[in-house]
Input
Amino acid sequence: MMPNLEVLGTLVRDLYQGLSQLFYLMLPVAILFSVIFGFLRSGDPNYPDIVKRAFVAALLIVSFPEVSNFILDVCDGIASKIDDMSGLEAFMKIAQEKSLGYAAAKKVLLLKFDGFFMAILSFASFALLYIAKYLTVVLYYFYWGLLSIAAPLLILCYMFPSTANITMNLYKGLIEVASWKIIWASAPFRRCVEAFS
Output
């Protein structure tokens, strides 16, 4: 099973599958290096720890699609319980109406410098808001795709005790990226929308 990468396209899905296959090719090499490093460090490699780490890494790669989909489902569920994300659309609609209202009163704007300045500021803020909205969505999908593609290699880092934190940070990163929707649906964002309306 794949993480929810169909949305991101076939390239992302193919890269994930290719790196998953590379994980299974690199696992014996990582076990061998772990034995060698353990022997060089202490003179006696810790075989039970190496086997345990290999088993846990294999479980992590097999369960990654389900775990990543679970993280997405939980964060989407929490965000939808807080707000159905219509606040962002309402905010965009309000900003567009305000900027169009200034465009309708061109003659008045030329006579009043204050109104002209406010109209320019309104147009610029709407353009910035419009770009920022799509930029945040693009960054959301980019980070999720990047973490999902690199997951097999980051899980392979669990084989070595000194790099095991990389695997833990992979799951932390997935939770952080998935929780962006919760932040977008949170009360401060809704208050900002209500203030502009």
